[in-house]
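dumping this here before i forget
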Amino acid sequence: MLTKTISAKRRDSRIGDRIFDFSNNVFMIMLIVVTLYPFINTLAISLNDANDSIRGGIFLKPRVFTWYNYEYVFKEASIFHATLVSVLRTVLGTVICVFCSAMVAYTISRKEFVLRKFVTVAFVLTMYFNGGLIPNYLLIKELHLLNSFWVYIIPGTVGVFNIIVIRSFIEGLPEGILESARMDGCGEFTTFMRIVLPLCTPVLATVSLFVAVWQWNSWFDVFLYNSSNINLSTLQYELMKVLQSSNASMSQKSAADVFSNVAGQTTNQVTPLAVRATMTIVASLPIIAVYPFLQKYFVKGMTLGGIKG
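structure:
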């Protein structure tokens, strides 16, 4: 009797596991579809004739294929120079920010640092209170960073959120490893460079992804501080100007012209919808290309970095 009961429970357990696995697979497939569809739809619109896109009904593939939307976006020579500025800003800003944030995080993670609690509270308060746009602009002006490339780097040298994440990860490292390094004669900086940084690779990769995405997508600081210097313009800012230009040219057309183009045969023209879709793809592809190389560190870094608050 007992054997039959155990067999029945095992059978019910196997059935429950199968139902759970099936439900989980269905849910994950639906999640993938919901996640990928907006990007694929945007890609289809960017590769479709702009006037034809106004009719709607484009889902997973373009109805009238064309490269003209991309030709329109990249027709300005300044786009390529702005791309180089964006790449340089992203790489340099990410390296400096992550390294400096890691140094600060290591400092406030040391129990022998007397002011660690005070400094931590002071940092956290900056996440809730901000001086505002005008004081920030005046500060940048007083620092002589206007019309300078370093205005993209220096204000973001240290990120409080990044410090907290890295500090939590460092506090989870075995203290014996750090003590062994000190017994071998390593100073704090040597311990940080040779012991802490290699062990913090997962969380550093995670923070690097955060900072790189922010640096790559940022354009408002270009508008505020470097809008008069075309040599310091970034890709995001140039794409924004292209979108404004397409909006202005579209507003100058009459409704009759628009509908006649839609009803008639396709022409080499653009619309704000097509330009917006093309800009989204152009701005997203570099980050999407980088993410697979950091994915294995991303999950581990977020998990271990969030163990302690």
